[in-house]
Design a protein that fits this description.
Elements lengths: L2 E7 H10 L1 E2 L3 H6 L2 E2 L6 H8 L6 E7 L7 E5 L5 E5 L3 E2 L3 E7 L14
Antiparallel strand pairs: 1-4, 2-7, 3-6, 4-8, 5-6
InterPro entries: DUF952
């Protein structure tokens, strides 16, 4: 199962869970799609767009469950990034984990020691 990831403030994700759907962060709404990252891209995404931010969650989503609304498009450095054109149905979510800052100021991903 291929996963894509969304980094999101905990409160924003709680609101999505209460609503039953995630329509995107303000940057997603402005761009017209929900930005995701692959496992290989998520650390750089956190450093570039969420540096120093605490109280975040890392949401893992099953890519295949998103169907044709998920498109792979060039972005940072020409890498293909997953973009969802439409709301995220919570049925596609496989896990939601805390993404705390470590003592070094970097985000500590769930698989980090």
């Amino acid at each position: 199962m291929a996963l894509v990831y969304k980094i999101c403030p905990r409160q924003m994700w709680a609101e999505a869970e209460a609503a039953g759907v995630f329509s995107g962060a303000p940057v997603d709404v402005a761009d017209g799609f929900i930005h995701f990252s692959t496992a290989a891209q998520m650390r750089e995404t956190a450093a570039k767009h969420f540096a120093g931010q605490n109280d975040l969650v890392l949401v893992a989503i099953e890519a295949a469950a998103l169907g044709e609304a998920l498109r792979w498009e060039p972005s940072r450095g020409g890498d293909l990034f997953p973009h969802l054109y439409g709301p995220l149905a919570l049925s596609a979510v496989r896990s939601v984990r805390p993404l705390p800052l470590g003592a070094d100021g970097l985000h500590q991903f769930p698989d980090d020691p």
